[in-house]
Write a structure and sequence with these properties.
The chain has 147 residues and is an all-alpha fold. It is globular. The chain is built from 6 helices and no strands.
């Protein structure tokens, strides 16, 4: 039995040579084109943002990560929607999010799982650390200190 660590880059052998993160292979969804949702409204954008995270989790073939992404989907949509609605002009924020997702996807497509994991850790820390207790924030900060 192989041990897989959540949040760590997975070896490329987890993906068949012909498979691609966008392929939507077994048990995976194609990452949505979030840019298409930019003008569709706050909730539609937030849903597309969360679906991107979920699709990447599913594409990792880490069943625990995929399960977690499905379990927290609605909460993630709500957090994203609140975060965006709290800024005076959401357009630049949405564009940064789309650009970040494209950067993560490019790293995955290039087979650079370490870069994709680093990008994800830093962004997730910046985005969600405020939602946990101060002691936990310190631990999370240590996880991205080298990034």
């Amino acid at each position: 039995m192989e041990r897989v660590v959540v949040g760590q880059p997975q070896p490329e052998h987890h993906r068949e040579p012909h498979e691609h993160p966008r392929d939507g292979g077994p048990g995976r969804e194609t990452p949505p084109e979030q840019g298409e949702q930019h003008d569709a409204g706050l909730h539609a954008f937030s849903e597309a943002d969360a679906l991107f995270h979920r699709a990447i989790a599913e594409a990792s073939r880490n069943s625990l990560l995929g399960l977690c992404a499905r379990a927290v989907h609605e909460a993630v949509v709500e957090i994203i929607e609140k975060k965006i609605s709290g800024v005076p002009d959401p357009t630049p924020w949405m564009r940064r999010s789309i650009a970040h997702h494209r950067e993560v996807l490019a790293a995955i497509e290039a087979g650079d799982s370490a870069a994709a994991a680093r990008l994800a850790r830093v962004a997730l820390h910046a985005y969600y650390a405020e939602h946990v207790e101060p002691e936990t924030q310190e631990l999370l900060s240590a996880a991205v200190a080298d990034d």
